[in-house]
Amino acid sequence: MTLKTPFEPAQPPHARQHPLSDTRHGVTRTDEYAWMRAENWQEVFRDPSKLDPAIRAHLEAENAYQAKLMADTADLRKALFAEMKGRIKEDDSSVPMKDGPYAYGSSYRLGGQHPRYFRKPAGGGEEEILLDGDREAEGKAYFQLGGLDHSADHKRLLWASDDKGSEFYTLRVRDLTTGTELADVIESTGGGGTWAADNEGFFYTLLDDNHRPSKVLFHKLGDDTANDRLIYEETDPGFFMNVGGTRRNDWIMISISDHETSEYRIVSAADPLGTPRLVAARETGLQYDLEEGGDIFFILTNEGGAKDFKIMTAPAADPVRANWKELVAHQPGRLILSIMGFKDYLVRLERFEGLPRIVVRERATGEEHAIAFDEEAYSLGMAGSYEYDTDVLRFSYSSMTTPAQVFDYDMRTRERTLLKTQEVPSGHDPAAYVTRRLMAPAEDGETVPVSLLYHRDTPLDGSAPCLLYGYGSYGITIPASFNTNCLSLVDRGFVYAIAHVRGGKDKGYGWYDDGKKAHKQNTFKDFIAVAKHLVAERYTSPDRIVAQGGSAGGMLMGAVANMAPAAFGAIIAEVPFVDVLNTMLDASLPLTPPEWPEWGNPIASEEDYRTIAAYSPYDNVGALDYPPVLALAGLTDPRVTYWEPAKWVARLRERKSGHNPVLFKINMDSGHAGASGRFSRLEEIAYTYAFALKVTGKAAV
Question: Which of 219, 310, 413, 674 is least buried, going by the fewest C-beta atoms within 10 A?
């Protein structure tokens, strides 16, 4: 029996139509809502007050409509927020990480929204606050800290912040002796920088008007920023670029990549104005990452058909491709995710048989051993290190029932030291919950991993509501990690499920390849197959499944809503990439050229055009009985522009059949990541959870 829509009747905003036609590859499409794309969108990202008043009025009407339909959940949202906040240790602190004479870390104060960064003497002593995020955020509707990098002599802090949500970061330098800011202020950067060896200047990426990191520059402290030295300029708009340093402070690395090709250029940190040296020229499909190793570089690469990657070495003095030598061979089915070099060890994080593990290799002997855990599904990650000459590796572990733990691991003695376990102040009993790993049969015979979390008292007779989360793009693997927020649903009888669909790397690099470009439909079909499997296994019922995804996962939501609307009880699409074809046809947008390797280039290729047109959610909205839909967006989002969900919502309302509502909530003061501040973000999560509870009839529980 289908649940009746629990929303009171209300008149949604009427979006005027102003048809605009476009013909490509002999196909003409008409976009009746193209006017929602502000002509001055670059200016709006920098100053939201410049938005066309007509567009602003429409977006504000959308907010008024969703507020009316969700008004009856006000008390529930407060309760959810209080629960989620109660699971956070408000004055939490990271475990400080040693770097020479100091150990650096971050913490929160009671009631604080933003982190504070501190250091203390490595041997023990008083804590010194270096940067207070709450203080820097005062008086700002939005505030987000970017990268921080303390100089090797521990005298200065290079830090970045964004106060629009548009991810144009401002770089500043703080004197750690006096606590004052230097006059060196640089606007429109990519969000971080890295110091030269003498600590008297730093490298950074500069964003152009289309929000692309087009230049790497060097700034010498005290100089006019207009005179900053251009180190490298990337002229191909299809490539991302960033700059970073090494822990030995000997190299500056400029990494350039799209989703399938990479290139590195290196500069001696002691010669910041030197000409960057090319390591290996970009070659379509060749990927490699460079990692320090003293007199050598370690190279993680797919060179020579190593689909799941292998590790090679090259002399640091001349690391060109001709000098690469194999160190760890390619092993099909063992995906090497990342590597980290130390003086005596090489550490790699890999995924084998669907689960992560850390492998430590002694450089002198080649002997290897693995750090692994026994739970059915878990998350494992390397936490990094400031120091190169050390035997200690820091890593983190959690599962859907086990709170996050931080360990120091002695690579020589193989002893683990538990440094911290995530505290849940309101209490958490792991034994009250069950986590499972299922394999759902896909349409073509593949099996799709599914991670489940539910309360041990939840009936598994098909009556439980389910929040089914999916992403499935860019090779990103969604970890089965501990999430205190979802307990508010699980404690109310929900089954919380993660569908590890194709497009991620959950089952190796091939799992990613089988969910991109011409194979993108596999991502959507996998998600639908998971929903059907959960029903077949009596975990839930179709009308009780709330599907959720964000960004490219929001595109997944739009696609499955078009393909199988009856398979879901509701759809939550956060910052959804739903206007895929129009966006990939607009080369002026920030991410379009770099995204062509992921989705295809519909400008140059008719095949790519037709492939994208076949699934692009906005282009495939039909006269279907869609379940209730909630879309969320941010006005200054440079990744998924606000007009994508705005147009999608308008077309859904125009074309759909049935009476289920389509809600659109847009944050007028934020971008892709939603509200800034940890508690403001919890309020947004409480809103989406209240929607899920409302549509499944659990709002009063």
Answer: 413
